[in-house]
Task: inverse folding
């Protein structure tokens, strides 16, 4: 069947409108940063558990999103969940590797038991050396921290893998506790990553 010109334009408009709705529904937006609602990783579909902004004083430092294979709202559930996981950071301002690394190290120190830190010390040292090799993080840079079963913790910056994987799952959990531990780097961001918007709506995409 051949459509006349008017019907073709109408069909094209409907398809364009439908596509725009579909595209809008597939992503969330935080501080102008778009985060996919779901993404594939290690043959698993991960869902955006929650996302928010890391503030330091009044400054927005980065947007962080936590991806899991199913929604979780407590830290023990998140740490115990099997399968791949992802934390995605998108920089909202430039930071030196010293400033960024200091934030990571402080978060790990404050949320990791002494015995566990001793067990993971070699991996923490290598982690620090890896970040020391990056002079700075620029606005718009994307830092990804993946847990891949059978592989380990894989860090990537702007799509390029940084160093070799860290194989111990305890190391990945130590990194997660930077944001989700009892003394997180940002309490509002912790709530947002766990999809808790009860009293801090400014720091969540929902």
Result:
């Amino acid at each position: 069947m051949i459509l006349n010109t008017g019907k073709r334009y109408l069909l094209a408009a409907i398809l364009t409108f439908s596509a725009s709705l579909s595209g809008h529904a597939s992503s969330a937006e935080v501080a102008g940063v778009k985060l996919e609602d779901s993404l594939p990783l290690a043959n698993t579909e991960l869902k955006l558990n929650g996302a928010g902004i890391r503030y330091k004083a009044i400054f927005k430092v980065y947007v962080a999103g936590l991806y899991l294979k199913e929604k979780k709202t407590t830290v023990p559930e998140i740490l115990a969940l099997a399968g791949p996981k992802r934390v995605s950071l998108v920089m909202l301002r430039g930071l030196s590797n010293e400033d960024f690394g200091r934030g990571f190290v402080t978060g790990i120190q404050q949320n990791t038991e002494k015995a566990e830190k001793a067990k993971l010390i070699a991996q923490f040292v290598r982690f620090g050396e890896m970040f020391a090799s990056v002079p700075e993080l620029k606005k718009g840079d994307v830092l990804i921290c993946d847990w891949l079963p059978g592989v380990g913790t894989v860090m990537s910056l702007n799509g390029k893998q940084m160093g070799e994987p860290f194989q111990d799952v305890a190391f990945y959990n130590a990194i997660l506790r930077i944001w989700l531990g009892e003394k997180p780097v940002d309490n509002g961001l912790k709530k947002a990553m766990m999809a808790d918007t009860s009293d801090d709506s400014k720091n969540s995409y929902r």
The chain has one domain: 28-203.
